[in-house]
Structures are given as C-alpha cells and as structure tokens.
Amino acid sequence: MKQVLLVLSIFFVTISFAQEKKEKEQLLVLKKANNYVYEGNDLVEDDNFVSGEMEYRKAISLNSNSVEGNYNLGNAYYDKGSYEEALYRHQQAANSSTSKAEKHKAFHNIGNILMQNKKCSEAVEAFKSALRNNPTDDETRYNLALAKECAKNEEQNKDQNEDDQNKDQNQDENKENQDQKEDKKDQEGDNKEENKDQDDQKENEGDDKKDEDGKPKDEKEDKGKEGDKKDDKKQPPPKPQQGKMSPQQIKNLLEAMNNQEQKVQEKMNAEKQKGVKVKTDKDW
Asked: How far is CA 44 from CA 52, 89, 227, in A?
C-alpha cells in the first residue's frame, strides 16, 4: 500500500512539474510576443512601418491569438490606408478578445474601416457591437450616428440609381420602338414609291398604245382599215366632165330654179298682206 501511494505521489509530482514547466514556457512565449509588439509600436511611431510590421508578424507567429499583435498591426495598416488588411487584423483581434474592453476597441475600429470603404450599413452593425461591450463610449455613439446617416443616404442613392436605370431603360425601349416604327414607315413609303413607279410604267406603256386623241392605236388602225374597206365598197359615182351635162341634169336644174323663184314670190306676197307691226308699249 505504501508503495502504491509512493508511486502515485511521484506521478502527481511529475505531472505538476511538467505542467508548471509548460506554463512557464507559455509565459515566456507570451512575454516574448509582447516584446515584439512593443518593439513594433516604437518602430511605427518612428515612421518605420516596414520594420514595425515585421515585429508585429513575429509576435503573431509566436501567438496567433495575440490580441495586441493583431490589433496594433491593424492600426498600422489603417494609418497607411491599407483598409482591407486592417479590417482582417481587427476581425482577428475581435475574435481572439476575451474581455469587453478589447472587443469594444476592435469593433470600434472595424466600424471606422467600413466607413472608409463606403460600407455604411455594415459600419452601423460594427458600432452597435462596440456599444454592447461599452455603452458609455460617446465617440462610438457619435460614429454610430454618422454611420446611420450615411446608410440612409446610401439607400436613397441606391433607390435613385435604380429609378434612373429604369428610366433610362424605358427611354431606350421607347427609342427602339420609335426607330422600329420609323423604319416600318420608311419601308411602307418605299413600297408605295415602288408601286407608283410600276403604275407609272404601266400607264406609259398604255399611252404608247394610244394616239393623240387618247384612243388605242390598234383600234384606230383597225377602224382605219375597216373604213378603207367601206370606202372601197361605197365610192361616189364619177362626176361628169365640165360642159357635158346630161339631159336629165339640165331638166333637174331648171326645175330647181323654178321652185326657188316661186318661193321668193310667195314670201313677198305674204309680207305685203301682213302690214306694219303696231307697238303696244308706251314711250316715255
């Protein structure tokens, strides 16, 4: 029994010693990482960003969950205008933070970075997270108000842009429809002009078949031929030559002269019997 207790005692002592050794090693690592952070802070303050960034990275390589290393490196990137790198480092710091104070600082800076990137709606949520960890920070509250106003304007601009896009789209569609109507109208006009030309051509062809009186030439020619045939059939009898009147012609001429003289005499007798016409209207 005593041997068992002795073995157990030795075992626990060994475990405790190993645990203590491990904790000492971890403390040394954390201390060394913090020293790298302090050196990085000094270098960045002296405007030596490259060397300072290297020291921060050494600290993070020793302790990937180093809140100080990620936070200070994020601030260094922010000051240099490298907002994407700064956002990543502050998100790492927020995830590794174990205290509300650390979380508040990380989310506050995340909100500032998002505002720089014109992501106002996301910045509103970041500032709200910062205030949940420290509701008394007036600077965070002020930045939250700015982010809300920015998000409101952002939404209005988005709606306006959508309206403008819809308006431009409607104008383009109307213009396209108008162009199609004009093209169709021009095509109809071309068709009408073509039909007119065809009608004019037919009319000219018809005129070529008509004479000056507007009658078809073929008909006139046919009538002329028929007339020639009729003239051939009904020609007047040949006139007698001058100075050689036939007895019948002399008789007819004398009878005509007598008839004419008799008519003249009858007319003269009728005028004598009629007398002078009497006026019935008064002269004034």
From this structure: 5, 16, 127
Neighbours of 183 (CB within 10 A): 10
In degrees, to the nearest 5, what angle opens at C-alpha 112 toward C-alphas 99 and 63? 40
How many CA atoms within 13 Å lie on the side-chain side of 279? 3
Q: What is the spatial distance between Cα 127 and Cα 108, in angstroms, rounded to a whole number?
A: 6
Contacts of 246 (CB under 8 A, 6+ apart): 240
What would the mean pLDDT of 238-256 be, rounded to a whole number? 64
Q: Look up the pTM and report it.
A: 0.53
* CB contact set of 73 (below 8 Å; sequence gap of 6+): 40, 53, 56, 57, 60, 89
Helix axis angle for 67-80 and 83-96, nearest 10°, is 160
Distance of CA 270 to the CA centre of its chain: 106
What residue has token string 């003289």? Answer: 261
Structure tokens at 252: 């007819």
List CB contacts of 151: < 8 A, sequence separation 6 or more: 120, 121, 123, 124
pLDDT, tens digit, 9 for 90 and up, residues 78-136: 999 999 999 999 999 999 999 999 999 999 999 999 999 999 999 999 999 999 999 99
Residue at token pair 């842009």? 161
Mean pLDDT of 174-194: 73
User: Alpha-carbon distance 32 to 22, whole Å?
Assistant: 15
Length of the chain: 284
Residue in this structure with the two tokens 């490196």, named with its chain if needed: 73
